[in-house]
Amino acid sequence: MAGRKQFDVGTALEAAMIQFWRAGHADTSVDDLSRVTGLNRSSLYSSFGGKDALFLRCLDRYVTRYGERFDAALADAGDQPVAGVRAFFEVTLERIADPALPDGCLVAQTAMAIPSLSPAVAERAQQAVGIQQTRLRAALTTMPDQTAEVYAVHVAAVNQSLAVMSRTGASAAQLRAIVSVTLDALENAI
Question: Which of 92, 114, 115, 150 is deepest in the core (most CB within 10 A)?
């Protein structure tokens, strides 16, 4: 029937998200998005409103998917912040180890590209990093406020660095060693 979308929006968003994750915002063209989604340019624009609008939907999809997993990991630890942060890192390490997914992290690579992004995309990337810090801060309630704030920022930074290191070819053992150092420091601070 004319005028009705003849494609699955979720499937198209997933394909676009993987493309942006693999190549980054700047290195993903509308032609790339058309190829991976199976939609022509006009369908992409009419359905998603252009590259930046599509990217924002993909970034939101990514943040929601992994945010829910991070929240569950931290919530399961209760009043044991080190266990919570360990579980938090496991979410990232499992994602990195999944051969079906691109290396790295869509949020981390977007944050690194902030100087070249549109203001709306740059703002959303900053918000995504801030959400992660807030999530971690809420899990570190057994620590004094100032210390918890510092560790929330530190753990978020280490988490983002795991994604960057995975893209540069760091081994699973190297990534786990990075996590161990952070967990040891957190345990000593508590």
Answer: 92
